[in-house]
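Ops channel
N.P.: pipeline sanity check, posting one input/output pair.
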C-alpha cells in the first residue's frame, strides 16, 4: 500500500513538473517572439524546439500514465480530446518555427495578418471557456462525468447541449484558434482545422456510435434535432 501511494504521488507531482516545464518553455519562446529583443535565428529556433519537445513529453506522459488501458462501456477513443488538441497545437508551433527559422519554404498570405490580434484571440478564447463552463455545468447537473472514457448513464440534451451536441470539442478547437491569434502565431490557428477533423473522426464519430448503442431511439431523436458542431 505504501509503495502504491508513493507511485501515485510520483505520477501526480511529476505530471505537475512536466506541465510547468511545458508552460515555461512556451512562455519563454513567446515572450521573446512577441517582444522587441533581438537574438540569433538559431537561438530563436532552439527556444521553439525546447517548447515543442517539452509539450510533446507532457502529452505523451499524460497519455501513458492516465489514459485507461482498457475501455469498457464507453466510446473507444484513442486518447483524451484535450491531448489531441495540444498535439495539434504543438505541431502547429513546430511547423511554424521550422519554416520560419530553418527552411523558409513559404510565406503565409498577407490577409492572415488580420488574425494576428490579441483582442480577437482573447475574445475567441473567452467564448471557448464559456462553452466549457456551460458544458461542465450540464454534466454536473446530471451528476455525469465529462471524461469521455467513462460510461454514460444519462443522455444530456438540455442546457448548452440543446443547441450543439459537442460543445466541449468545439471549445477546444476555438481555444486553439484563439490562442494562435492572440500569440500572433498563425500556424497554431490554422492547425485548429486539423484539430476539428481529428476530433470529428477519432472522438465524435466513435462517441456517436456508443451513444446510439446505449440510448437507441432517444439518441436518434436527439441526433436528428441538434447539430453536431454549429
Amino acid at each position: 500500500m505504501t509503495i502504491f501511494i508513493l507511485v501515485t504521488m510520483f505520477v501526480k507531482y511529476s505530471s505537475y513538473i512536466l506541465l510547468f516545464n511545458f508552460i515555461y518553455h512556451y512562455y519563454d519562446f513567446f515572450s521573446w517572439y512577441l517582444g522587441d529583443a533581438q537574438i540569433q535565428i538559431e537561438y530563436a529556433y532552439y527556444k521553439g524546439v525546447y517548447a515543442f519537445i517539452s509539450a510533446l513529453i507532457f502529452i505523451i506522459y499524460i497519455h501513458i500514465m492516465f489514459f485507461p488501458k482498457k475501455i469498457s462501456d464507453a466510446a473507444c477513443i484513442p486518447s483524451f480530446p484535450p491531448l489531441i488538441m495540444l498535439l495539434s497545437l504543438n505541431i502547429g508551433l513546430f511547423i511554424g518555427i521550422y519554416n520560419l527559422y530553418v527552411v523558409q519554404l513559404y510565406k503565409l498570405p498577407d490577409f492572415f495578418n488580420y488574425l494576428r490580434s490579441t483582442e480577437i484571440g482573447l475574445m475567441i478564447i473567452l467564448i471557448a471557456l464559456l462553452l466549457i463552463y456551460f458544458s461542465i455545468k450540464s454534466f454536473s447537473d446530471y451528476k455525469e462525468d465529462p471524461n469521455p472514457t467513462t460510461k454514460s448513464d444519462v443522455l444530456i440534451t438540455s442546457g448548452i447541449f440543446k443547441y450543439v451536441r459537442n460543445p466541449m470539442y468545439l471549445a477546444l478547437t476555438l481555444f486553439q484558434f484563439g490562442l494562435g491569434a492572440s500569440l500572433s502565431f498563425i500556424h497554431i490557428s490554422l492547425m485548429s482545422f486539423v484539430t476539428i477533423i481529428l476530433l470529428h473522426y477519432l472522438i465524435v464519430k466513435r462517441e456517436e456510435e456508443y451513444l446510439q448503442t446505449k440510448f437507441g431511439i432517444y439518441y436518434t431523436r436527439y441526433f436528428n434535432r441538434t447539430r453536431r458542431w454549429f
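N.P.: looks fine end to end. The mean pLDDT is 95.
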